[in-house]
Structures are given as structure tokens and as C-alpha cells.
Design brief:
Elements lengths: L1 E3 L5 E3 L8 H12 L3 E3 L12 E2 L5 E2 L4 E4 L25 E10 L2 H5 L21 E2 H4 L10 H8 L7 E5 L3 E5 L15 E2 L2 E5 L6 E8 L3 H46 L3 H42 L6 H31 L1 H4 L4 H4 L6 E3 L13 E7 L4 E2 L2 H10 L6 E5 L14 E14 L11 E6 H4 L18 E5 L5
Parallel strand pairs: 18-20
Antiparallel strand pairs: 1-2, 3-6, 4-5, 5-7, 7-13, 8-10, 9-10, 9-13, 11-12, 14-19, 15-18, 16-18, 17-18, 17-19
């Protein structure tokens, strides 16, 4: 048997065919999981927030209260003071799962105060007694029997680790159970309150183990801490993504206007792709912003709840609901982080400007490999994109191409546009290519001005010793499809 206790349950059970294993293992499980004293409840009490794990373990942690102790596995004295039993007063268990269908020795011989008192045989053995639902709940308050109705009762009876259901309607609580010889009949009686459930048989009991309460206050604090840590990561990544989106939008708008007027459709299309990608970033940022706001609100509620008294059913129930909300929000935050990291992958690889220093020295203007006479002229190029548009310095753009080792052969770089000087971080736009297709070089630009920051580059290690000028024969696989001179300037 292995058990991991926390906000999520991972329970694995392996037992022998006769299931006698559960007589010892399940009580041990209940004892090992930090039982707590109960919170106040009222009858009838409709259970909230049930969770079902892989072995149908139904969890209701939100009703747990303060810590309590069990004395031993079979808990001598359990159920032996009927007048002291105050059901629906203290919640001691937060979950249950089915363990067996057997003829239970305790149902026949462990009932000291019920209909089978004459057959009671445990006085000198374990000195315990089972506790019947019908014996402690007035007839007018009884509900039609289901698994949860019986659990609702038994989880508030001290020292009980199991509950049993028999004959479709009888519910009893027991500190342990013991299989005795029986016929071949099954547990096949449907529950009075839910015809889709089985509540024992004519002679056999459907038996369920109850799971002891956890420390809700500690879980609340731990869940809030985890959410806050993930939220901090999301906030930091969102700030970087916002800077990138702003630079993409601003730079693309400026350059698209310039190249539209200059009659450079290739460059204009690159700027449009930058705008589109900025829109994708903004959409992801919108989701991340909503998650961050939810996390901040929930963190405030968690601090207030942790500072209060978590002892009543109402306050513990609210804390449990809050834990679930924080867990869901943490999951959403992690998903947002994963999405933003994926979108920003190329830029994340060049975040260290020092590491990127001088990376551009390994790249030459693409015109150097076409016609060296025009190598220093501003140029733009198009090709097969190897990455999404990124925001970077010239060295950062070169480093990004280096990082894309198997794909990138060059890039078209556009230095920070006028009006972006006040923005924090790099503002240049970079478009990485796995193959260069066209180039347009501007011979009408002066030697001074921002236009000199616009250049198409090729990786020296890819093109050194080669010529990529368009080849009319069409037999040059690495050659450009077009190299067009523009005797004007785009600025």
C-alpha cells in the first residue's frame, strides 16, 4: 500500500483475494494521515466538494477541523459509551473508498447495544462495539440510505475507521471489520436512496474505509505559497513579453509605413507578420493577466483565512473551496507560463546581452555574397522563416540565428525605429530565415541616418566562398530567386 496525502490524492492498493488485508492496512492508513478534531456541522448535512480518486475515494476535506488522536489500530473502547456519542457534531473523516463485500463478524457479534446484543462476543477481545445509524438518528430525521448518508453519520462518530451497509438500508460504523465464513451470495441490494448504488446484500456488508482529516490551515498556506511562487514567475515573464509585444507593434507600424511608400512588399509583409505575432503575444498576455489578477485576489483571501480560526464547518468549508480555487489558478498560471515560454523561446535564448556580444561578427551583409560593390548598402530580404519575429539588438539577432543551429542561415534586421528610444531593452526587429529567397538593396540612401541599421545578413560559415546571385538557369539551389536594386531610400 502506498499513499501520498495532499490536495491531490494518489492512492494505490493491492490486496489478497479475500481482502483480509484491509483489516490492518486500512486502519493503519487512517492513523498515518494526521487525523484532526472535527468542525461543527448540522444535520441533515449535504456534503460539498466531493472528489473521486482512481479507487473511488471520495474526499470532503473541507469539513475537517482540529487535530485528534487514535489510541490503537482496533481502538479499544470504541462505541462502548452510546450516551457519549453525539453524531453530526465533530467531523473526523474527510473521505471514503470501498474495500470489501463480506459477511462481517462485527455486524453479528460486535453489536453490544443493538438488535444483536445477545450475540456480542468482543467484551474480552477488543472491547468495542459497532454503532448503528438507526440507533442515533431520530426516525423523522433519517434519510434514505446511500454511501454518503452513511459516511456523513459515521465520520462524526469518534474512533470509527469503517462503515458498513447491508440489506440496502442498514448503516453501521465500526473501528475494524473481520470476514467470517459465508455462502456464495453477493452484495447485490440497491441502496434505498440511490438505485445506482449497492448497499450490501441480505447477509453481507458493503464495507468502506474512511480517510482521516488533514490539516486544512497548513494546506491553505502551502497552496497559497505555491500559487504565489508560480504567479511571480508569470508576472516576470509577462513583463518581458509585454516589452517584446510593444517593440514589435511599434517598430512594425513604423517600418511598414516606410517600406509601403518605398514599394518594398517583401519588407512590408515581414512587418505584417510582426504585427500578427504581437497580436498572438497580446492574446496570451490577456489570459496571463486574468490569471495573475485571480492569483492576487485569492492570495489576499488566503491570508485573511489563515489569520482566522479554522474550526467551524463554515470556515473550513470556505478554506477548502479556496484551496481548490488556488490549485486551479496555479494550474492555469503554469499553463500560461508554458504558453509564453513557447512564444518567447527564441528571445529567451538571447536574454543575456553579454553572451551575445560580438555574435554579429560572424555574419556578413547578404549583398557581400551577391555583389560586393553593394555590400554596405541598406538591404531587406525575404525567405523561409525559421522562427517567429523577435525583438533584439544586432548581436542578439545573430545569437538567435546561432541558437537555431540546424535551420537559420541568415536574417533581415531592422534597427530600433525612431520614437522607440525610451523603451526599455532592445527594440530592433529580427526575422530569421532557413533559406534566403529575395533581396532588395537601396542605393539612394545617404551614408548617415537610421536606414543604415537595416540590413540583410548571411551566416559566413554557410556562404563563405559561394555566390548566391540569382542564376537564370534555375540550377543553383542556394541562389536567390531575385536581387533587386532600388535607386531610392525608404527613410
Amino acid at each position: 500500500l502506498s499513499f501520498r496525502h495532499g490536495s491531490n490524492v494518489d492512492l494505490h492498493l493491492r490486496a489478497s483475494a479475500n481482502m483480509a488485508f484491509f483489516k490492518v492496512a486500512a486502519p493503519l492508513l487512517a492513523l498515518l494521515t494526521a487525523p484532526v478534531d472535527g468542525a461543527k456541522v448540522h444535520h441533515p448535512h449535504h456534503l460539498r466538494g466531493a472528489e473521486t480518486a482512481s479507487v473511488a475515494m471520495h474526499l470532503f476535506r473541507h469539513d475537517c477541523g482540529k487535530r485528534s488522536k487514535f489510541s490503537s489500530l482496533q481502538i479499544p473502547g470504541a462505541g462502548m459509551e452510546p450516551s457519549a456519542i453525539k453524531p453530526f457534531t465533530q467531523v473526523l473523516k474527510d473521505g471514503f473508498y470501498q474495500v470489501d463485500c463480506v459477511k462481517d463478524y462485527l455486524f453479528e457479534h460486535g453489536d453490544k447495544f443493538g438488535d444483536h446484543f445477545a450475540s456480542y462476543k468482543l467484551q474480552e477481545v477488543t472491547n468495542v462495539s459497532i454503532v448503528h445509524y438507526a440507533a442515533h438518528v431520530p426516525k423523522e430525521d433519517r434519510e434514505q440510505m446511500t454511501h454518503e448518508v452513511c459516511f456523513e453519520f459515521c465520520r462524526t462518530v469518534p474512533d470509527m475507521l469503517f462503515f458498513g451497509l447491508t440489506n440496502g438500508r442498514e448503516c453501521y460504523c465500526t473501528p475494524y471489520y473481520e470476514m467470517e465464513a459465508s455462502d456464495s451470495s453477493e452484495c447485490d441490494e440497491v441502496c434505498d436512496g440511490d438505485k445506482g448504488l449497492i448497499c450490501g446484500g441480505k447477509t453481507k456488508s458493503s464495507l468502506f474505509s474512511m480517510h482521516s482529516c488533514s490539516n486544512t490551515a497548513e494546506m491553505l498556506t502551502n497552496t497559497a505559497t505555491s500559487m504565489t511562487e508560480v504567479g511571480g514567475e508569470l508576472t516576470a515573464l509577462s513583463e518581458l513579453t509585454t516589452q517584446a509585444s510593444t517593440a514589435l507593434q511599434g517598430g512594425a507600424a513604423t517600418y511598414q509605413d516606410k517600406f509601403g511608400q518605398a514599394g518594398d512588399p517583401g519588407a512590408s509583409d515581414l512587418m505584417q507578420s510582426a504585427k500578427v505575432f504581437a497580436g498572438v503575444l497580446d492574446k496570451a498576455l490577456g489570459v496571463a493577466g486574468d490569471v495573475s489578477k485571480s492569483a492576487a485576489d485569492l492570495d489576499g483571501k488566503a491570508k485573511a483565512a489563515a489569520g482566522g480560526e479554522l474550526s467551524s464547518s463554515k470556515t473550513v468549508g470556505e478554506a477548502e473551496d479556496l484551496i481548490k480555487e488556488m490549485e486551479a489558478t496555479t494550474t492555469k498560471a503554469e499553463a500560461s507560463i508554458e504558453e509564453l515560454e513557447g512564444l518567447m523561446a527564441a528571445m529567451a535564448g538571447i536574454a543575456d546581452e553579454e553572451a551575445a556580444k560580438d555574435a554579429a561578427k560572424q555574419y556578413y551583409p547578404a549583398m557581400y555574397f551577391v555583389n560586393k560593390t553593394f555590400a554596405k548598402m541598406p538591404s531587406t530580404c525575404t525567405g523561409e522563416a525559421s522562427e517567429k519575429p523577435i525583438v533584439a539588438s544586432l548581436d542578439g539577432c545573430a545569437r538567435a540565428c546561432d541558437n537555431d543551429l540546424q535551420e537559420c542561415v541568415g536574417f533581415s534586421y531592422f534597427g530600433g525605429a525612431a520614437g522607440q528610444q525610451q523603451q526599455e531593452g532592445p527594440t530592433g526587429l529580427c526575422f530569421l530565415f532557413s533559406k534566403l529567397k529575395t533581396i532588395r538593396y537601396y542605393t539612394g540612401c545617404s551614408e548617415q541616418g537610421d536606414h543604415n541599421d537595416v540590413q540583410c545578413y548571411g551566416k559566413l560559415s554557410k556562404f563563405e566562398g559561394t555566390a548566391i546571385a540569382p542564376n537564370p538557369s534555375g540550377k543553383c539551389e542556394g541562389c536567390l530567386k531575385e536581387a533587386k536594386q532600388a535607386d531610392r531610400c525608404f527613410a
